[in-house]
Amino acid sequence: MTALLSVRGIEKSFDRNRVLTGIDLDIAAGEVVALLGENGAGKSTFVNILSGALGRDAGRVVFAGAETVFSTTREAIDAGIIHIHQELSLIGSLSVMENLFIGDYRTGRSGIIDRKALAAASRPLLERVGAGHIDPRRTAGELSTAEQQLVEIAKALSRNARLLILDEPTASLTPHEAAALFAVVRELKSRGVAVIFISHRLEEVFQIADRVVVLRDGGVVSDRPVAATSREAIIADMTGRAFALGAMPPAIVPEGAPLRLAAEAIGDGAGIGPISFELRAGEILGVFGLVGAGRTELLEMLCGKRAIKSGAIRLASGAAPASPTAAWRSGLALLPEGRKTNGILPNLSVEENIVVARRQAGGGLVARGSERALADRLWRTLGIVAAGPGQPIRSLSGGNQQKALFARCLAADPSILLLDEPTHGVDVRTKGDIYRTVRDLAGEGLAVVFVSSELPEILALASTVMVLAHGRRTLYAPRAGLGENDVLSAAFVEAA
Amino acid sequence: AAEVPLPDAAKALGATVAAEGPSEKPLRLAVLSFQGSSFWEAADKGIAAATDYLKPLNTTVDYIQLGTGLTAETIVAGIDGALTKQYDGIATVPIFDGTVAKVNEAVAAGVPFVAFIADSAERSNRTVGMGQLAYDAGKTAGAFIAKQLGGKGKIAVITGYLGAAQHDARMNGALDYLKAEHPDITIVGPFECKDDDATAYSQATDAMTSNPDLSVIYVTAGGSEAAAKAVRDAGQTGKVGVVGYDDLPEKQQYKDGGEILALLDQAPGRQTFESLVMLHNILAFGKEYPADIPVAAPLALGKNAKP
Amino acid sequence: MEGRSVVRFLRTRREATVLAMLVIVFLGLTFASEFFLTGRNLSNVARQISVVGIVALGQALVIIAGGIDLSVGSVIGLAAVTAAMVSAATGMPSLGIVGAIAIGMAVGFLNGVLVTRIRINPFITTLGTLSIARGAALLATNGNPQRFDNWAAWLGYGRIGEVPVQFLLLVALTLVVAFFATRTRWGRNVYAVGDNARAARLAGIDVARTRIMVFTLSGSLAGLGGLLLGGMLTNSNPNLGLGYELDVIAAVILGGVALSGGRGSIGGVVIGAALMGLLRNAFVLLNVSGYWQTITIGLVVILAVGADSLNRRREDD
Amino acid sequence: MEGRSVVRFLRTRREATVLAMLVIVFLGLTFASEFFLTGRNLSNVARQISVVGIVALGQALVIIAGGIDLSVGSVIGLAAVTAAMVSAATGMPSLGIVGAIAIGMAVGFLNGVLVTRIRINPFITTLGTLSIARGAALLATNGNPQRFDNWAAWLGYGRIGEVPVQFLLLVALTLVVAFFATRTRWGRNVYAVGDNARAARLAGIDVARTRIMVFTLSGSLAGLGGLLLGGMLTNSNPNLGLGYELDVIAAVILGGVALSGGRGSIGGVVIGAALMGLLRNAFVLLNVSGYWQTITIGLVVILAVGADSLNRRREDD
Ligand SMILES: Nc1ncnc2c1ncn2[C@@H]1O[C@H](COP(=O)(O)OP(=O)(O)OP(=O)(O)O)[C@@H](O)[C@H]1O
Ligand SMILES: Nc1ncnc2c1ncn2[C@@H]1O[C@H](COP(=O)(O)OP(=O)(O)OP(=O)(O)O)[C@@H](O)[C@H]1O
Ligand SMILES: O[C@@H]1[C@@H](O)[C@@H](O)CO[C@H]1O
Ligand SMILES: [Mg+2]
Ligand SMILES: [Mg+2]
């Protein structure tokens, strides 16, 4: 079997930072290759080069028998290389159907759009990815993150893909939606499409991949059929040492711990609530739900970003915050969902991104020395990979950006930590680090609200579990004594 | 000393002041003026004529162009530059009150200073100020308008920049006179056109539409030919007439056509020429000129004007 | 459109607020001045709207694509004198038309190339060409207005019945540009590029070409605007269009185009231009004098956009 | 700074390109005109830079925070007449100073409130207040220039030795604003807000307050600018500052501030203003013809930013 894609000696540096030191890879038609590696290993950089989004410094790419140098993504798309990027790249102001056929909108040579035909061609694509409920004429910007991700995948189907690149496509999907995606991948595979699949969820790799390729230090360190590898082996390849996540002891809320926050039937008057719960020092409240269940909205109410229209919040440290500014001041720290739009200050340095929230509580003058020391310490603790603390955060890999945002929360010395999908795009090792950090902090008396779409994560970490469905609380119980099914069935409760 | 005969170019501009003869020591004069319209182009002609005329008389004229933006700061910066370059004499158009301090500084430093075309409203110590008295010119325009109307009727006023001293003075000179002497004349406006032809055109058109009894449009600065064009386009030639300033070539067709009743001319070329020659005479021969040389406001009449 | 969607339109679109404002001013003027609703006055208003409206069409596309074009005012002046001088030099008015539009197109293309190839910020690029184009117009004419009185000028001064030719051009161009923006591949790409240039590039859209295209279009329409303005006055002054950029941009934003790119409708832009034109007409009809005109324009601009903002709070930041 | 980091600075910062440009123009003028390097001329240049530079400091903060302030030119005029009229009415020049800065502060605060509370786009807001402030200045004075010749005016015309007081103010304010921008919490928040307002808010920054603060600062500095300009001319014309907004914004962007917000340095802004001032001085010293002045300004603006862009290709979009 000759390779559809054959890559030799790909190298890439950003300034003096050598990111890829010579990648070799072959992929056959109909093969699904999982590309793994720690945050900053160069996965996105590599696939960006394949799809013409980035130039390379050295190396050769042979695709479908021809040597190729794509200088624009258009050329790659025309050749059949379709890349779904790590960051969502829908055009918010265009309709869903225009996004599906972006660039030419099925206009052919006339250049004139036939809206009816476009809508008709869009529906089956949306159905295939399990998004048949989305009206193709809707504006893409109005869709939820998950819906956008589904449209993004449907977009790939609209094109005649020969090689499909999926860079962390499941990061914002629930297991249910991820399963729909895998069905699509299998269908494409059966039609001879090759797939490169990047993910930090190892269980997915075993579900879908034929081969596992691991990147480390800018090169390929292992390339094995999925049957010939194991979770442990992959982790060892990624981290360069034997590594085990190790089962953590179940978390328990300490007896008689002081109350930190109480939510009394709070609602936003727009479909979320009433929701009640209590949060004690040392407690980790894991909040689970399907996408759109209202978890983000709940956190927004807690941190003063979203107005509370009914019910009330009581804080041990004072009045309920009226704004995020007030929230941080009263000891609530928020790690928001959507690191690019809500999280990072892209052009500021990593250091500034880390200290920004803490600084608000300080005096008028910036204390450079202590800020640097703090950033340095957190930087090291969380193992952020970058050229230095002065590097603009936008040029860090996705996972490292996420770590910096986590560092921002820790820097503020909070008493309550609100985490919305904190492990989005974070590699296994760091996930472990974050879990341990959260546990340690809880041990020191911090109260944590941990929103996640990954059930194992909730179950491993939480001391109390809350499930939301359609904006309502459908389960609220101590972790001990809960099984996977209890949580899932609460998440799937039908709308009242 | 015998007067040096004026060249034809200067005579064509209407100049009468001649040089008293060559200067003993070489003289350097700076003239500062603006660009950007046919008015300033006409002023340039006088500068060019004076430059040629004075060169054999041992006087060099350097033309410092101030560009197209008429502001006090620009003039002040220009004068500052001229002082730095140690010219023997300076001529310019110090149209804003903000130039007074700088002009006084030049004179105090012993550099004779001649103002042409438009002086500041507040009086500076300039050696000579030649030009039309804008308020009086406005009054002349007002009297002319009253005569055209027979003391009764309606006029619309379109002014250049509100707050531009010269434009305001021309406006008020006419309006104060009309209000005092001819209360039966109704005044509409003023409307500010910012010297923009298209705006003046629209304002003239709208004024005619909303005032069917309109007889005169008085334009204090740029835009008189655009207003005339509006009259022509509205079919009001003979019924509505424009009174404005500056008899420039592009307006001839409307004088001939009857839309422009009269233009008050400032003879800009003559003024620049004479300013420079006076400076030469002052510096080379210690000649004295009156501190104020008013330039008459002759009316260049159009076809339909009542004399 | 059914009842429900009309309400939705009014609640959600900026152009609806401006349309409402326009209707209010229109009705107010109808009562306040007996001359307002005369054919003659409406025809004047239509003409006064036209040049700003036409130039705003191109500007809207540039802004939707995430740029800005400050050079339009100067291009108007440069194109006006080009039309006059080319007609006079060749004796062929048709070449005057071609010249005006071509010089606008050339400046626009240059803007596009500087922005996309040399990657100079559009504000700076067009601030630069604003100066250069004006300087060129002055240099070519030595500051003297150019007689422009031939059949090409008719496009600017002519009327068909009571309707100014300029206005017919505005209507036709609005339809064409609106169709272009909503129904053609290139038009949709303009929105995509303005909304998220990076995503657009990754989706295979030629971002640079799209941007060059909108700047070229904007320049060409400004060139046409200069031709019309010079024609209307049968006299091309190199200072024509001075300061128009701010009026044109105000019309575009009043009409609901987001300065941040990616959003806005072509119809709205013309409504914005109409509101500005109507106000200017009102000042003269109602004899609003001097200083109050300046203040009123400022208030209306803020009110029109402010009413809309209060109506629909933004979800972001 | 060691050698390596100097090179790095030159390669990576926009202000370095403009600084290089400034040095070239400076050297060129030294050779081209014997008068350039005289104390008197340098003192003139220093004074000519000052007002634009001071106003640009505030504008820079606004732009870094992701806004824009078009009203500064009009605020200059309004503050200038306020200074003169308040001094005259009260007989106390010190109150004139307070009045000028307070009126600028008030307009700036109004801008900030309209932008953050009513959520009107800054371009539109300040385009509106541009008109309103100018109208107010004209209304207050009836269009008449106001004599302004007292010790408050000395701030504008005075010199200490050869050095204009204005220039000393510029230097002092540059240091203060640069310190503010880089070393204080509020200053750093300005960058954060301009970079990503949403993220800044979620990180606990009071975005609205930050924006109101920068607009208020910009207004106050424009007010000071008006005081200085009126003082320098010992005469406050309500039209002072007309069109300054474009000059000021050009200086800011020349100095390396990104119009998209979040990036730029205060030092760069002053370099930008100095380059513009030096050019104007060159025109007078070298007798550059009027139309070429316009063209040259345009070319330099494009060149300065363009050279820099070619030097360092942007990685984004
Ligand atoms: N535009 C850029 N400029 C400078 N450095 C960059 C740029 N893009 C990526 N890098 C660096 O290249 C390295 C690899 O980044 P890349 O995004 O490829 O990692 P990744 O393997 O996809 O990680 P993740 O799992 O976190 O997405 C990182 O150290 C990152 O900081
Ligand atoms: N910008 C938006 N416009 C319209 N509806 C929105 C928008 N953002 C979210 N929604 C809707 O709000 C509801 C809840 O949003 P969201 O998806 O953030 O919930 P969630 O439980 O936090 O899920 P997740 O964080 O996993 O995406 C959904 O019905 C979603 O469609
Ligand atoms: O008439 C005026 C002149 O006096 C001068 O101000 C230039 O502009 C013209 O309109
Ligand atoms: Mg990645
Ligand atoms: Mg969420």
Brief summary of the model shown:
The complex is a heterotetramer, with 1 copy of chain A (496 residues), 1 copy of chain B (307 residues) and 2 copies of chain C (317 residues). In chain B, 41% of the residues lie in helices and 20% in strands.
Q: Which whole number gives the mean pLDDT of chain C?
A: 90
Give the averaged pLDDT of chain B, no decimals: 93
Using the alpha-carbon principal axes, give the shape of chain C: globular
Q: Work out the radius of gyration of chain B.
A: 20 Å
Order of helices and strands of chain C: HHHHHHEHEEHHHHEHHH
**Which structural class is indicated by helix and strand composition of chain C?**
mainly alpha
* Second-tier CATH architecture of chain C: Orthogonal Bundle
Secondary-structure element order of chain B, N to C: HEHEHEHEEHEHEHEHEHEHEE
The coarse silhouette of chain B is elongated
Subcellular location (chains C, D): Cell membrane
Function (chains C, D): Part of the ABC transporter complex LsrABCD involved in autoinducer 2 (AI-2) import. Probably responsible for the translocation of the substrate across the membrane.
Keywords (chains C, D): Cell inner membrane, Cell membrane, Membrane, Transmembrane, Transmembrane helix, Transport
Subunit structure (chains C, D): The complex is composed of two ATP-binding proteins (LsrA), two transmembrane proteins (LsrC and LsrD) and a solute-binding protein (LsrB).
How does this model look, in words?
The complex is a heterotetramer, with 1 copy of chain A (496 residues), 1 copy of chain B (307 residues) and 2 copies of chain C (317 residues). Chain A has 17 helices and 19 strands. By secondary structure, chain A is α/β, with parallel strands linked by helices. The longest helix of chain A is centred in the middle third of the chain and has 16 residues. The mean pLDDT of chain A is 89. Chain B is of the alpha/beta class and 307 residues long. In chain B, strands 2-1-3-4-5-11 form a 6-stranded parallel sheet, with helices on both faces. The two termini of chain C are 33 Å apart. Chain C has a single domain, classed as ABC transporter involved in vitamin B12 uptake, BtuC (Orthogonal Bundle). Classes of the chains: A alpha/beta (496), B alpha/beta (307), C mainly alpha (317). Chains in contact: A-C, A-D, B-C, B-D, C-D. At the B-C interface, helix 2, strand 7, helix 7 and helix 8 of B face helix 3, helix 11, helix 13 and helix 14 of C. Beta-D-ribopyranose (RIP) binds next to loops of chain B.
